[in-house]
Design brief:
Layout lengths: L3 E4 L9 E6 L5 E5 L12 H4 L1 H5 L9 E4 L2 E4 L2 H15 L6 E5 L6 H6 L1 H5 L4 E3 L5 H11 L15 E5 L3 H4 L1 H12 L3 E6 L11 E4 L5 H12 L5 H8 L3 H9 L3 H8 L3 H12 L5 E5 L9 H14 L10 E2 L11 H4 L7 E3 L3 H7 L6 E5 L3 H4 L3 H8 L3 E6 L11 E4 L8 E4 L5 E5 L12 H10 L10 H9 L8 H7 L1 E3 L37 E6 L19 E4 L1 H6 L7 E6 L2 E9 L7 E5 L31 E6 L10
Parallel strand pairs: 6-14, 7-13, 8-9, 8-11, 9-10, 11-12, 14-15, 15-16, 20-24, 21-23
Antiparallel strand pairs: 1-2, 2-3, 4-5, 4-16, 17-18, 18-19, 20-25, 21-24, 22-23, 22-25
The structure holds iron/sulfur cluster.
Length: 645
């Protein structure tokens, strides 16, 4: 058996190409594909260990239909007939049906399966649980979402990493930064929780959570007093006056107090950006935007990079991300009918509870949204009034509420073509394992569901969907070539916004014009609850075996001790929305106003942070402002003494 080229379709920027290598015993080993120009044979633990997920005894491998309150095994014929009858009954009122899809798995065929709910004009969601706020912020500043090629970081003399935990979010970015540092690149990390990325930095500034805009504004104010920088602002931006006015709204002392950064640290940051002989790159973290003022955080950092001239040159650019679909033909999507209405994803619980007319059917795939969206309990309660169809492989917080659960195949079991939100390759992902039991991929399931409707809706065949996606001027490949070679490269300039010319019509940078203070603390909930990315799992794709005991909550020793809690002690994590038990671990590097929980734990196992979070929304792109959630930690009450017999 020859080795097969496949790839990872998880919601990760790296988009690794993989090879399935036969072992002597006939089984397959999943390894990185050394021929891939960007991922170069390196894959992370999430990809390496995915086979264990495929083989998990917790997999759902047959359709399940709820009868008398209990999910019971059913045939595909029965399960799809039940779903088709429900959809037929609501066909004339598509606004009563909601399609929720996520990025738990990605790819051209996964997207193409969405043609069924789109043709039915089911309601859809808007907003984002992750990067949309930052994307909107970058588009507002630059007129598009773009960045230099990640390998341009090798050309940087300095990298300012504004909070990206590259030790967990991207093994390839971590490798690039490591190699750049070996060649002499200096890295300054700015973060409220620096312990992850500090190993990839030469210097660290610890900042109060969500206040990076104040630090960036303070550095910009200083830069603008130095020769040449104000002139660049006036020359390269469309609205310098509005930007300068917002910088003047707070003096330096107020800005530094707001972000809890010393004058010496500000001086260092200013000096880094002020060095016009050096090439300075800016890495935007993917937590900056997860605050109520998330777009302002991103935009003030972008403005600082622009004023300092560190954009559009070798080694100098702002790195957020790129669209993973930018290299594909997406015209077919634009030709689909508009959804009958849109509900906010970050506020989905409230939206479902208050929808008029009510949502009577939910079709969910690629996302465990009860778990992943804020306010899990409101979402779960609202779902009890709808007929819920879930495509999933595990009995997670959303699947447990399904009326019909349709078992789907996972990556390495389904054919896909997928793009990256970091590099310019598209990857072919061959199915290398047969799906277990009766599992089928989303495309197959929704195609058959559509065919069973009283007025059938058929998807185009798979080959057509794959071919039309590749029909793009950016791709010089064919489906058969891609299947053979495993990847194709789309051509894009190595440097984005070369010569400081943005993609706005006027070619200028459009500055942020607001610098909003944070709301005053209530005092009862002094900590920002930061639910950060994990190293070994993505989203809520966490095996039960990893959710034993209590989840760990990192806190600054002084903060925990002030609550009378020792390192390793069980405690209560409380928000106005609820409480959960955690084990407190001291982290001397974390800002004293932050506590950190790794995200994705299941509510049903007592590990789900979103059972505690409110549906807060960011200032652009309807993003979930997860990190603006305030929390307290409290000592567990001692068990009351047992009454005497
Ligand atoms: S999770 Fe990311 S880094 Fe890991 S194998 Fe998949 S694409 Fe590669």
């Amino acid at each position: 058996m020859t080795q097969l080229v496949t790839g990872c379709t998880l919601d990760c920027p790296d988009c690794c190409s993989m090879v399935a290598v036969p072992r002597q015993d006939g089984t397959l080993s999943i390894q990185g594909n050394p021929a891939h120009p960007f991922t170069q044979g390196l894959i992370c633990g999430k990809g390496k260990n995915f086979v264990q997920r495929l083989q998990s005894s917790e997999r759902i491998t047959t359709p399940l239909v709820r009868r008398n309150g209990t999910l019971r095994k059913a045939s595909w014929d029965e399960a799809l007939s039940v779903c088709a009858a429900k959809i037929d009954a609501l066909r004339a009122t598509p606004e009563k049906m909601l399609h929720i899809r996520g990025a738990g798995t990605r790819g051209v065929l996964f997207d193409a399966a969405g043609e069924l709910p789109a043709r039915l004009r089911m309601a859809a969601t808007h907003g984002s649980l992750c990067d949309e706020t930052g994307i909107e912020a970058c588009k507002a500043d630059f007129g598009s979402l773009n960045m230099n090629h990640p390998h341009d970081l090798f050309n940087a003399d300095r990298i300012v990493n504004w909070g990206r935990d590259i030790s967990r979010s991207s093994v390839h970015l971590a490798k690039i930064v490591n190699e750049a540092r070996k060649k002499g690149t200096q890295v300054l990390l700015i973060s409220p929780c620096p312990s992850g990325a500090a190993g990839y930095a030469d210097e660290v500034i610890t900042v109060r959570p969500g206040t990076d805009r104040f630090l960036a504004a303070a550095a910009a104010r200083r830069l603008l007093t130095r020769p040449g920088f104000r002139q660049r602002l006036l020359r390269c931006s469309a609205n310098a006056d509005a930007y300068l006015a917002c910088l003047d709204a707070m003096d330096e002392h107020a800005l530094l107090t707001a972000c809890d950064v010393s004058t010496a640290a500000l001086e260092k940051l200013t000096d880094w950006y002020a060095d016009t002989d050096a090439a300075v790159s800016t890495l935007l973290g993917w937590g900056l935007q997860r605050y109520i003022r998330g777009a302002q955080n991103v935009r003030h950092i972008n403005a600082l990079a622009m004023i300092s001239g560190h954009i559009g040159k070798n080694g100098a650019g702002v790195f957020y991300n790129i669209s993973s679909s930018r290299n594909f033909n997406r015209q077919w999507m634009q030709d689909l009918p508009e959804p009958s209405r849109r509900l906010s994803l970050p506020r989905i619980g409230q939206e479902l509870a208050g929808a008029a007319p009510p949502v009577e059917l939910v079709l969910c795939r690629g996302i465990n949204f009860v778990n992943q969206c804020p306010d899990s309990h409101t979402t779960a309660a609202a779902l009890r009034h709808a007929f819920v169809i879930v495509l999933d492989a595990f009995m997670n917080d959303t699947a447990a509420l399904a009326d019909v659960l349709l078992p789907c195949s996972l990556m390495l079991e389904r054919e896909e073509i997928v793009g990256s939100f970091m590099h310019n390759q598209i990857n072919y992902c061959a199915p290398v394992f047969p799906p277990p039991g009766e599992c089928r991929d989303d495309f197959d399931i929704l195609d058959e569901l559509g065919s069973r409707l009283s007025e059938p809706v058929r998807l185009p065949d798979r080959e057509t969907c794959l071919r039309r996606a590749l029909d793009s001027p950016l791709l010089q490949t064919t489906l058969s070539r891609l299947r053979q070679e495993g990847f194709a490269t789309a051509e894009h300039p190595f440097i984005a916004y070369e010569g400081m010319r943005t993609d706005h019509q006027d070619g200028l940078f459009h500055c942020v014009a607001e610098l909003s203070p944070d709301k005053e603390d209530s005092g009862d909930y002094p900590f920002f609850l930061l639910t950060l990315i994990s190293r070994n799992t993505l989203h809520s794709q966490i095996p039960a075996g990893m959710q034993q005991g209590l989840p760990e909550l990192a806190a600054a020793p002084c903060a925990a001790q002030a609550a009378g809690i020792a390192d390793g002690e069980a405690a209560l994590l409380c928000t106005p929305g609820g409480q959960m038990q955690v084990t407190v671990r001291f982290d001397p590097a974390i800002h004293p106003s932050a506590v950190r929980l790794r995200r994705g734990g299941w509510v049903s196992r007592g590990w789900g942070a979103n059972g505690l979070t409110a549906p807060l929304v960011t200032d652009a792109g309807e993003g979930a402002a997860f990190y603006s959630q305030k929390a307290a930690i409290k000592k567990l009450q001692a068990e009351p003494p047992h009454p005497q017999a």
